[in-house]
Structure formats: structure tokens, C-alpha cells
């Protein structure tokens, strides 16, 4: 039941509202007002879809700066990007970030969600606290981590006070720990809110399911993974997709606020590279080429996660 | 289900994480009232006095007062525009049975998956092309577009639950389409509107990267999220001021969260995975 069988239908079937049945249309005459959707649609096309399509155009341009002449470059940018060691550093960092942050986040959040859904003593307090990361802004989160991890910050102070001062480090400015700090931020902020989502969904799983499993002698560990997980598998997939996207694209802000991609390229991620090449290095074609690649990575990841978590009972 | 003794490790792990969530916030709140010396000497001791000196410094050195006003303006106007666009659109989509409406609805629900970050640079170009670069106006126009997919999807779901008989009755009394929207649909989906408002209040107030790139660093225009990180460089490592500033930006969100806790939690949970 829990094996990951992939179905031949790999299309991005989506849970959307079922197509409206023709019955009501026949029953009541058209009442007008459909035109009211036009402003929103126009807004959406101008500010969201248009810019998104523009990425693909700019990626094919040679454009060395805002006020510089633009010329068509075709696939030249792709060649430049693929030959650039910085790009491959960013690929490596993003891969590490995703491979560590997303699974840790989802697994911990699922267990935490299961815990909260059992209503142990104090679950209300826990639930209240778990929302915290979902409420505070990215700059505020970055300030928290800056205060905790800077050379004279909380962590070093704590280490010194327990006599481990020799372990103290400039965490954000050290090539070996900068990326780890960013991953820690993702995980710290991600677990809480994701757990709340899982807890809410697990709350609607009938109690009888778990009780039946317990009568058969299954412990909580078994119940959690072989009863509850398969039931909400589809939902876990959707949440994983979202966390994957947020981690992939959202890392630009964390990097910008905490490490600026450094030292060297040790914490440059793909999405930060898009930002840096556009707004700091002013190599616009390069930036948007990475943007296109990032977009494709997002799409492929999305479809893969979708397929892995397909409901299969 | 009973939780036996074997749950002890689970309890410990969960509460450790809870402490990790609370400690930074406590540290920030306490440090906001302390001097740097006090912070380094006793990081976790409660403040000895509740002087507002750090807040005053934060206000003055980064123009935080002005930034709060800017953030409030952008947030409120964007919320108003979001509703103005999303309510009629959802009304149209919820009532329509045509194929076109189905396509439009699908387009909106797909938009939920577009990470806004992806189009940062083209949006920046759009701002420059429309002459609205370095203005708050562009953000007020732009933010609702990012919020539309989710808002429309949530509102359509609410409006579908309104029985068609309500509209038929209003029609018999001679109500126009607009009157039906105004007097039947809008009042009946107020809970949905509240959800949309709360969710978007959070996203708009907390928005950082677009505000940074489009509004820019001009103290007269910038929002509080853009002003906050500048405290780091202005004050060097004056943690008292840094934490006071951070606490200030959290106050509006905290107020709303504490006042509307249940509703906010529902909104966040339903908003995250509506697709």
C-alpha cells in the first residue's frame, strides 16, 4: 500500500473544481455578468503572465546592462551560463539545499502534525506557537538568524557560557557553514507551519482508523506511517510541492539578507544568482537564462513530486 | 488514542522545537529594552527597565515611522484593489456555466503555482516602462495581481455554496446583476472575504524583495520590511536597536493574530493548499 508505484498517467492532473454540469444552464437562462471577470483577468495577464513570458525573451538577448544596447543572442547565453563555474556552484548549493531542507522539513512536520493531532497535553500552546514562522516576514526571520549566528551573537555566547568557546565560529561568514545556516533557516521556519497544515488535515482522518490499528497491536509509529500517511498521501504531496517551490525560489531573499552568496560562492543559490546577475552584476541575459533554467527545474520537480505522491489505493 | 510512556522522546523533541521558536522572540523582546552591554552580559535576563530609548533610536536612524506609514498605505490600498478585482471576478466565475469561464478559472488556479520571484526582473522592467519605477503606486497595482489566483479560488468556492434560488428571488424583485452581486453575494460570502483579507494582509505587509527592487531605498517611499535590514548597517552591531526595530514591524501582525487567532489560523491553513 505504501510502495511508490508510478502510474502511466504522468500528466499534471490537478485537483480543480469538476467541470460545471450543463443542467443548471438549461434550467436558468444566462444571467449576464461574466464580463465582470475581465478586469481581474487583464490585471493578472499584465502583471503576472506577461512578465513570466518576458523571461524567455530576455533569456535570448545579449543585454549587458540597463542602458546598454540590446542584441539578439539566441542560445549564446545558455552556453555562457553552462560554461560558468559559478553557475555550477549555484546548482550544487541549490541541490544540497533542496535535498536536505525539503525531506527534513516534510518528515519532521508530518510527525509533529501527527503528534498535535493526537491532542497531547499542551497541544493548544504548541499549535499557537507553530504558527509563528508563518507570521513573521523574511527580513524579521533573517534578523533572528543574524542575531543568533553573528560572531558576537546568541549561539557563540551560549557556547562560551557552557565552556565550549573553542567551537565558536563566524557561522554566516565561514565557507563551510554559510549554506548550512541558510538550510537551518528554511527548516526552522518550515517545520512549524507545515506541521500545522498536516495537523489540520490529520484532524479530519476518522479516529476509528487509528484505533483499529492499535487494537491490531500496532504502535503509534506503525499507525502513523502505515495508516495515516497513506490516507493523506495526496495532501502530503501537495504540501511537498509547495515547500519545494518556496525553498527553490525563496532562497534568494535569505541569501541576500544573510550572506550575499558568500564567502566566495559558497552560499550562492540559483535563485540568488538570478537576482545578483540582474541587479548587481547587470548581466541581464545571463540572469534571465538562469531564470528560465530555474523555472524548468521548478516544473520538473513539481511533476516528479506529483507523481511520487500520487494516491495509490 | 492513549499516549503511553513511550511518548516521552516525542514530548521532549516537540517541546524543544517549541522552545526554539519562542526563544528568539523572547530574546528580541527582551533585548529591545536593553543596552548592548546588558545583552552580551545576560542575554536571557529580563530587561531591568522598560525604557523606550532603543525604539526611539530605531525610529530616528532608519525613519521607521515613515516606513510604517508607507507599509500601511501600500497594504491597505492593495487589499482594497484585490477585493475590487477578485469579488466581481469570482462572482462571474461562480455563476457562469460556460466553457470559457471554466478555462479562466483554471488559469487562475494554475497561477497559484507561479512563484512570484521568477518574474522579478521583467516586473522591474514593467515598472520602468510605465514610469512608475521607485513609486509605491506600482506596488499597489502589482501586489493584487499576485494575490488574485488564491483570492479568486477561495471566493469562488464560497460563492458556489450560495443557492441559485437567492438570486432568482432577487431577480423577481427586479434586481440588476450588479445589485445581485452587491446585496446577495457579497454579504453572504463575508467569511470568505475575511479569509482573503487576512491572508493577503500577511503577504502584503511582509512582502520584501519586490518592495526592495521596485520602491527602492528612498526613505520617503520605502516600506518597513525594506527599512528594517538597513538598521544592521546603520547601527553596526547595536543589537538593542536592531531588535527594537524588528519588534516594531511585528506588532501589527501580532495584534491581528491575537485578536483574530481562530480565524487567522483557519485562513492560513485553507490558504496554503487551495488548489
Automatic annotation (TrEMBL), chain A:
It is a multi-pass membrane protein. Residues 11-26 have a biased composition (Low complexity). It holds the Pfam family BPD_transp_1. It comes from the Bacteria. PROSITE patterns: ABC_TM1 (PS50928). Keywords: Cell membrane, Membrane, Transmembrane, Transmembrane helix, Transport. The keyword Hydrolase does not apply. The keyword Metal-binding does not apply. The chain crosses the membrane at residues 36-63, 95-116, 128-149, 177-200, 235-258, 278-305. Residues 1-29 are annotated as: Disordered. Its main location: membrane. Residues 91-305 form the ABC transmembrane type-1 domain. InterPro entries: MetI-like, MetI-like_sf, UgpAE/MalFG_permease. It is found in: Cell membrane. Belongs to the binding-protein-dependent transport system permease family. This is Sugar ABC transporter permease. It comes from Streptomyces hyderabadensis.
TrEMBL record, chain B:
This is Carbohydrate ABC transporter permease. The chain crosses the membrane at residues 12-29, 64-87, 107-131, 137-159, 180-202, 239-260. Its main location: membrane. Residues 68-260 form the ABC transmembrane type-1 domain. Coiled coil: none annotated. It comes from Streptomyces hyderabadensis. Keywords: Cell membrane, Membrane, Transmembrane, Transmembrane helix, Transport. It is a multi-pass membrane protein. InterPro entries: MetI-like, MetI-like_sf. Pfam families: BPD_transp_1. It is found in: Cell membrane. Belongs to the binding-protein-dependent transport system permease family. SUPFAM superfamilies: MetI-like. It comes from the Bacteria. PROSITE patterns: ABC_TM1.
